[in-house]
Design a protein that fits this description.
The mean pLDDT is 80. The protein has a domain of 25 residues. The chain is mostly helical. The chain has two helices and no strands.
Length: 80
């Protein structure tokens, strides 16, 4: 039913668009549409560049706990 449009159908659609929107607004609408598509394409390209490969989690090495150091006994000396 909607498979193919002939030249008559396309002409009717164009006339209806011009009547509804006016000939002054159509170029502005097309410019906005083109700008939106350009921004969309640019964002897709930058997303591909910034995409980082998935990093595997790094296993933490076992760290031996340090034992507290015992202080050597201090000999008290008296001055004479």
């Amino acid at each position: 039913m909607f498979g193919r449009f002939g030249w008559a159908e396309i002409l009717v659609i164009v006339v209806l668009v011009v009547i509804l929107f006016g000939h002054n607004k159509i170029p502005g609408m097309m410019k906005n549409l083109a700008d939106g598509l350009n921004v969309f394409k640019k964002e897709l390209k930058t997303e591909e560049k910034t995409e980082e490969p998935v990093k595997k989690p790094v296993a933490k090495k076992a760290v031996a706990k340090k034992k507290p150091v015992k202080k050597a006994p201090v000999k008290k000396t008296t001055k004479k």
